Amino acid sequence: MSENIKHISDASFEADVLKSERPVLVDFWAEWCAPCKAIAPILEEVSKEYEGKLQIVKMDVDSNQVIPTKFGIRGIPTLVLFKNGVAAAEKVGVMGKAQLTAFIDSNI
């Protein structure tokens, strides 16, 4: 597991995401999801580059169903960027590093 990417749950979502001092990128994923595994190393790289500016967290949609349902997560991987406790932007599906950093930069 990464030192920069935190695994969160329905129970920790409010503290880890909604009450965070800095923007939080939530990766909604599942163990069986091949595209989710494909984006994981890209998220790892990006988490190091944005350290101190952005927190990246992962939420397993199989183990945690309350929060994904609340935010209407239907496909995975879905990345949702939260700022000041509000979902500010969303991207569904795998993307390359350039696409991911462009998405982050345009929203933080």
Automatic annotation (TrEMBL):
- Protein family per UniProt: Belongs to the thioredoxin family.
Domain Thioredoxin, first and last residues per copy? 1-108
Q: Which residues are catalytic?
A: C33, C36
Q: Does the keyword Acetylation apply?
A: no
Matching entries from NCBIfam families are given as: PRK09381.1 (NF006898), thioredoxin (TIGR01068)
* Single GO BP term: cell redox homeostasis
| Protein's UniProt name | Thioredoxin
Instruction: List S-S links within the chain.
Output: C33-C36
User: Which residues are tagged with the site Deprotonates C-terminal active site Cys?
Assistant: D27
Q: Name one Pfam family in it.
A: Thioredoxin
User: Which lineage ranks, top first, belong to the organism behind this chain?
Assistant: Bacteria, Pseudomonadati, Pseudomonadota, Betaproteobacteria, Burkholderiales
Q: Where is this site: Contributes to redox potential value?
A: A34, P35
PROSITE patterns given in the database record? THIOREDOXIN_1 (PS00194), THIOREDOXIN_2 (PS51352)
PANTHER family cross-referenced by the UniProt entry? GEO12009P1
Q: Which GO terms describe its molecular function?
A: protein-disulfide reductase activity
GO terms for cellular component: cytosol
Keyword field = Disulfide bond, Electron transport, Redox-active center, Transport
Question: In which domain of life is the source organism classified?
Answer: Bacteria
